[in-house]
Amino acid sequence: MSEIASRNIHQHLINLLEQHDARFRVVEHEAVGKCEAVSEIRGTALGQGAKALLCKIKGNGVKKHVLAILAADLQADLSRLAQHFGSSKASLASPAEVDELTACVFGAIPPFSFHPDLHLVADPVLFQRFDDIAFNAGLLEKSVIMNTGDYLRIARPELVDFRRE
């Protein structure tokens, strides 16, 4: 079992946010799979949702995993993401890779990288429209709504335009 798999990602995330004096709140809710449904339960706009996509980038001598964060009302352009890294191909990672690199199931991945081999990028539109972002916090039935500026300060993602135009 990898070091990350032995962690309680939800508690690790909450501890991190508290240590950095983040402005956030936890919302407990039913485990629902669709971004639209969970944003309604949270009482947030769909565009406030931070969708986390675990991507595999390969080609042109590049081979890496990227946790790509995108506003839930937008779609990813994986070819733009691959191009950013000088690669020719990007695809979504397998469930086994998601488990290994995030210790979460699809849909529960928070927009933070807790694995040294997982590069964190975020599309800047997510931070331009709302003062708070919302995301599943390591568990399908727990979300965090947090201040956008605090997220950027703590997570420090590389900002990359990779949304579909």
UniProtKB/TrEMBL annotation:
InterPro entries: PROXY, YbaK/aa-tRNA-synt-asso_dom_sf, YbaK/aa-tRNA-synth-assoc-dom. It comes from the Bacteria. It holds the Pfam family tRNA_edit. Residues 29-153 form the YbaK/aminoacyl-tRNA synthetase-associated domain. This is YbaK/prolyl-tRNA synthetase associated domain-containing protein. It comes from Kosakonia sacchari.
